[in-house]
Design goal:
The protein has 2 domains: 222 residues, TolB, C-terminal domain (Neuraminidase, 6 Propeller); 88 residues, Immunoglobulin-like (Sandwich), CATH 2.60.40. Helix content is 0%, strand content 47%. The two termini are 39 Å apart.
Length: 358
């Protein structure tokens, strides 16, 4: 966003779009953030549970990182003016595979999103939005209004933030190549500062918006209007003051992978790595326990939703194994993606992550 005026940004916001119905309590997770204007080669991981920046990575770049779309397993980093589209581990930030867009994208590229196997990328100038493969191959090009910076899918709704108007709204497809924009009016005092990236916390059903310099807000949306509630100060948490996060992505926090100290009488057990991993038709898990105790086994998707579960009245001592055939509790086959198995006995919990491929 080099063509925009650089002036003081008074607030750094995170907006959570929450439906009228009550939502479950937030269970944590991470936001990956870029930082335009400040330490531009860095990407920051904000821990939503500890409310702190707990990791900083510095991938090689000639410009700042402002596309941080996540699919639960990977985070995809891109620059506003180059063709780079790199794949990084969603938790550690380690580079998995470098890549580039093909063909090169036009316009000043901003935030990105992931949905239904594709990456989406909005532009601030050029009135263009792209849908690409995760390898960067352009699938579709669309016309959108100018001024948009943040972009995120929430179910079947495509939300955007508009830097020029300081509004959030939704894009609606009007024909095969064009999307129109409708903004939400603010109810009460609106948030201030220059609007940046969006990210959807699928676990808490919250849409986050980043702007300016240092505060988090939760936005409740009722009857197509939005209300801002102060949540936290992110600059105090370690994000650079004066930076504008025009790229942001959310990833669910992994469950513990070691034994948590348990209550008296609970079994001490181990959970082996899922095999095969990745898997196509089914996956096997091995458990070892030192005593007889009840246990709960659950399968969860990347949003934290429980898909299948088994309750064992008495987990037997020694080694045992079980299979999952990739069917949920309704008997439907689950799609390709990232999943977790979690085993609990008393207060002890073990978890492993695995991937289903088609």
């Amino acid at each position: 966003m080099r063509s925009r005026l650089r002036f003081s940004r008074s607030v750094w916001l995170v907006l959570a779009l929450i439906a009228v119905a009550p939502r479950p309590a937030h269970a944590g997770g991470y936001l990956w953030l870029g930082a335009e204007y400040q330490v531009e080669g860095n990407a920051y991981r904000f821990n939503l549970q500890t409310r702190s920046i707990d990791k900083v990575i510095s991938p090689t770049a000639t410009d700042h990182w402002n596309n941080m779309a996540t699919d639960g397993l990977n985070v995809y980093l891109s620059n506003p003016s180059s063709s780079v589209i790199n794949t990084h581990d969603a938790y550690s930030g380690a580079l998995i595979a470098p890549g580039s867009y093909s063909p090169a994208l036009a316009g000043l590229r901003e935030d990105g999103a992931f949905a239904n196997g594709s990456l989406w990328r909005i532009t601030y100038t050029g009135s263009v939005m792209y849908r690409t493969t995760t390898a960067g191959v352009v699938e579709s090009t669309f016309t959108v209004p100018t001024g948009c910076v943040g972009i995120e899918w929430v179910g079947t709704t495509l939300f955007v933030s508009n830097y020029s108007t300081s509004r959030i709204g939704r894009l609606t497809r009007t024909n095969a190549t064009t999307w129109s924009y409708a903004a939400y009016p603010w109810k009460g005092t609106p948030p201030t500062g220059n609007f940046g990236a969006l990210a959807w916390d699928r676990q808490a059903d919250s849409l986050y918006l980043a702007t300016g310099s240092g505060l988090l807000y939760t936005i409740k949306v009722e009857n197509d209007s939005a209300r801002a509630l102060l949540s936290a100060n992110l600059v105090a948490a370690g994000y650079p003051s004066g930076g504008l996060p025009d790229g942001m992505g959310w990833v669910i926090a992994p469950a513990p992978t070691g034994v948590v100290p348990g209550e008296a009488g609970a079994a001490t057990f181990t959970l082996g790595e899922p095999t095969p991993n990745p898997a196509r038709e089914g996956v096997r898990f091995e458990l070892s326990s030192d005593r007889t105790a009840p246990a709960d086994i659950g399968i969860y998707d990347a949003t934290g939703r429980r898909l299948r579960g088994w309750t064992l009245p008495a987990l037997s001592p020694g080694r045992s194994s079980f299979m999952w055939d990739f069917h949920d509790s309704r008997g439907a086959v689950v799609p390709a993606g990232v999943y977790f198995v979690r085993v609990r006995s008393g207060h002890e919990t073990l978890s492993r992550r695995f991937t289903r491929v088609e």
